[in-house]
Amino acid sequence: MSTSPQPSALSPPLRIWYGGTFDPVHNGHLTIACAARDALDCAIRLMPAADPPHRAPPGAQAMHRAAMVELAIAGERGLRIDRRELTRSGRSYSIDTLRDLRDVYGLDAPLALLIGADSLVGLPTWKDWRVLFELAHFVVADRLGSNIDAGGADLEQALAGRWVSAPPALRESPAGCVLRLQQPLHSGSATDVRSRIASGEPWRPLVPAAVADYIEHHGLYGTPLDKAGHDKAGYDKAGYDKDGHDKDGHDKDGHDKDGHDKDGHDKDGHDKDDPVRPL
User: Fold this and answer.
1) Rounded to an integer, what distance in angstroms lies between the CA atom of residue 134 and that of residue 102?
2) Helix (H, G, I), strand (E, B) or coil at 156
3) Long-range Cβ pairs for the range 117-122 (8 Å, 24+)
4) Does the structure show a pLDDT above 70 at 9?
5) Mean pLDDT throughout 213-240?
6) 190-211 core/surface letters (b: 16 or more CB in 10 A; e: else)
7) Residue 2, Cα to own-chain centre: how many angstroms?
8) 3-class DSSP state for residue 249?
9) What angle do CA 174, 109, 49 make, to 5 degrees?
10) pTM of this prediction exceeds 0.85
11) How many whole angstroms separate alpha carbon 174 and alpha carbon 177?
12) CB 211 within 8 A of CB 20
């Protein structure tokens, strides 16, 4: 049960997004999300990134990473998934996401990003990073080995006067505050999980059981595939079966096994319900 101060009935709702590649989502991610949920008494939206510009491409495709997040949070009170970055074309910048959120919730709604201390230290490498404080609060989760004071003079200056010590302060303004989350430290990392899988070391205890099963089932991160390169479900690394169809039965051009696209039209523009008459 949370022991943090409860928000007033008149307080505007605080909305928090926890972004990341989640490649894969692991127990440390869940520890942080649950700690933030309890400390701030609000739902946490886990938001998988499509193509983060400031780091190497993810090891698993977006559809797999999102599926693993859904499995990890199933049954967890107050944890949700937000797929908005996966539906945006082009590179995935936090500044664009926050502007989209402001368009949805307005300029006066308290919004926050939940990030790790390592991400805070690297914030000056993000696009338009100073503007982020005008659009959202930051909730910072400590990470083993991360030193918040190592961010340099520019970050120190940007953070000056923004630190708050109590969660209710985040509901008193739309953006601009920084709260340090006091949560149990967890040594796990997605890099460690991927490394252990690739080297054949024990890794399953580092992720939720359903996520471990998914990784093995789909042959992710170097888990065994058959001689043809297919996972246990019969799909290759791109997500297609031996006939070239994805899980929804569509080929790489978006057509189903009968040759129709998602709107029911064949390659010549005919409607499947009226194949003679072109549209």
Assistant:
1) 11
2) helix
3) 117/141, 117/142, 117/143, 117/146, 117/147, 117/148, 118/143, 118/145, 118/146, 120/148, 120/151, 120/155, 121/146, 121/147, 121/148, 121/150, 121/151, 121/155, 122/54, 122/151
4) no
5) 72
6) beebbebbeeeeebeebbbeeb
7) 24
8) coil
9) 90
10) no
11) 9
12) no
Residue 169 belongs to domain with CATH number? 3.40.50.620
Residue 137 corresponds to which tokens in the numbers above? 């609060």
Q: What is the pLDDT of residue 263?
A: 64
Asked if 229 and 237 count as a contact pair (C-beta separation under 8 A), the reply is: yes
**Do residues 78 and 177 share a domain?**
yes
CA–CA dist 98, 271 (Å, integer)? 40
Q: Does the pLDDT of residue 106 top 80, yes or no? A: yes
Q: Rounded to the nearest 5°, which phi and psi values hold at 44? A: -115, 125
SS3 26: coil
Amino acid at 269: G
- Structural domain count of the chain: 2
C-beta separation of 133 from 158 below 8 A:
yes
| Burial class of residue 223 (count of CB atoms within 10 Å of its CB; 0-12, 13-18, 19+) | middle
Tell me whether residue 90 is in a domain: yes
Q: Distance (Å, rounded) from C-alpha 174 to C-alpha 73?
A: 27
User: Tokens at residue 124, please?
Assistant: 């000056």
CA dist., res. 12 & res. 162, Å (int): 20
The answer to whether residues 127 and 31 belong to one domain is: yes
Question: What's the domain range around 65?
Answer: 15-181
pLDDT bracket for residue 270 (50, 70, 90): low
Place of tokens 């107050």: 78
258 falls within a domain: no
